[in-house]
């Protein structure tokens, strides 16, 4: 790209903007063309243009760039004239004589330009001659891209000249113009007046919007050396920066550079960070351009913190509005008009933004903080007092906002009063998250008396146990427990709920179990609460204790609850007991479980039924009773929503993700799982479900690194603090991944470790995914006797259990053992039975895998190729989107002389991509090499090379990178699976 004078983009990696980049690339390749790139300050206009130019660069194409500058009196035609300064001796030798008009504007080119024409009669003729000269020179240069950035700062002459070019562009010119719509004069028209491109000219507008949370995560990872970015951190960064790349980049730099630099970022770092210096400077510069009244309006909005109505902003402004209940009309009207004018100016400047409901606030949190941080202390104090007085006049009073302003205006008594009132109001509305947040704020105040601290801590512990947020609450409760003067019964209650919080929300099982067990001892004089603690310790997914330990805890809880009349307590203990029994596959639990769903009259009782439904749905999913699991999930979600228990409402959604995976409802599942991670605020159990499903999907697409990362996040990175049932499934998937990558030793070791954990726990229904994988790993390592022993042990442990998924898995284990011992006829029959058992659940992916295994055993018998079995498996894999498995089946058919038609049939595709080419294009879009694509699709590298060439030709692109641009957003490649055996 010779002669480009573009500003350097701030980040090294381009993220998001796939559709916008594709549109701009297409325009650059379709000269003559005009592209308007619009977006607010810092949105990434320059970065997009850089990326498009890099991806469409061709030999001989020139790129000329000019920038409009924010000068009080811009130089006439400055940005356009600057385009030509670097051309030097590279000008064509024979130029249109009119180009001589450029001599006085670009003296650097005087020697290469024709003689200057005679002076024109008037300035209009001179201007027209200059415009013609620019057009003639661009036409002589041939294939050229002209970029003019920040058109909103252009002088009138520059805009007239650009409009002249747009109205009649040279045939080989691609013109790219960037601007901020909010800063454009003349009614928001980029070129000052309306224009119309002539026929045959491509014209596009590319509006840039903020990055979404996924792109924020990608950009943050790129800026921190590829370190993983948690979903919660990405969500917080997105909230504080509104997804504006410049603001995000400065935020990450503050966190990773200088004295406060962090190797690993977390949400707390973001919450406590200072405003980036460049953002402060930019904010101060924009504030300086406002009138005093408009600046006061912006400061008032910063103090109010949340978007507010114009009248409220006027009341808080230093001199914006009346400060008494009934101002005289003559005084109020001029003040209101001044305030309205001030707010309007702030809006037009971009300092404030209008919300949909007629309120005004800041584009993002850091903008508000930047303005707020510039306020001197006395001014802040006075503005908070004005806000407090103005809000106190509203009916009903906004209690949370009153508490906030009372605190920051120095009114501590008012702060505590309003805060406790807000707690009660939020509790009445069922807003658990707000209750927890307010109680946390109260407990953080060092002026709170000890007696009040204990009372509020107990309240916080109860509310937090059914909410989602947990980090701050756990730290505060732990601090309260250090008070030696705390009564033992109160201490036990706080510790019990802390233990529940650590187990359920935080996923710190070892610490949580220890606290819960200690609380049971401290609650010796409060048997109802002690029974709750015992019932919690009976939940088998908590930790690695054997089943017998959980059974003893639930027996003690049932003994205690028999003496109590508390209905909610009875339901809580009974629900946990039934979930424990269901987890083991007890055939006698179903009627009692259904009866439990009919109980519960009070809010507290219905909340416990909701909790029980969540646990029963989880247990039924592990058993393979998918219809029952759906029923429990729906009822639990309904009850939790009615009772205002967000934690209980979300745990059933984690189960729903696993249900969708098992039953083959994979369309949109990855997006659902990512959304769940963004919504649950780091709640461990739901996060484990989501990570597991994302890991399984990535593994099914052949994305080994992504799969391994997700499976570690699902629990493998910290087995002692992972849900035991999820851990077993994650280990099975990780073992399969190792085997698929050729590391049979690592795969076998992972499977055996996980199997030993199940053996210690004693709940073999959780080995439905794991047992076939472990048996397969042993067979592949030649350890046939151990494989047979494990299969027999698995069958014995399932005897008398109502566990259809584990029963199907046991059949698969038997098939693997028979295959390893070359008893192919028996293996085929057993795999057929396993396929039927999986299909009945339904669990289509496992059914297809065992169906393929049956067909391969028939091939091993030397019989005619089982085209029906392999073709059916290929069809089933394809329907799921597991194209790697489907390709493996098709290869087996080809090797045995049988062709399998595409699901879309055979025909000529012309300029369209064939199904195979679509698969290749999707993998190319993910950045896969030809060799990697060959491994996924079971093709030769040479065949893949031919497919890639056809993809590039049909998409009319010249590089693999452009395939990623043109691939429709949201289409992931559907590569998958590994290995013919069900393990």
TrEMBL record:
Using the record's annotation, list all stretches that form the HTH luxR-type domain.
Answer: 906-972
Query: Is-annotated flag, keyword Nucleotide-binding?
Result: yes
**Matching CDD domains:** LuxR_C_like
Question: A single Gene Ontology molecular function, please?
Answer: DNA binding
Which key words are in the record?
ATP-binding, Nucleotide-binding
State the Pfam families in the record. AAA_16, GerE
**Might you report a single GO cellular component term?**
cytoplasm
Keyword hit for Cytoplasm: no
InterPro entries associated with the record: AAA_16, P-loop_NTPase, Sig_transdc_resp-reg_C-effctor, TPR-like_helical_dom_sf, Tscrpt_reg_LuxR_C, WH-like_DNA-bd_sf
Enumerate the Gene Ontology biological process terms.
regulation of DNA-templated transcription
Taxonomic superkingdom: Bacteria
Q: What is this protein called?
A: LuxR family transcriptional regulator
Tell me which species this is from: Streptomyces albus
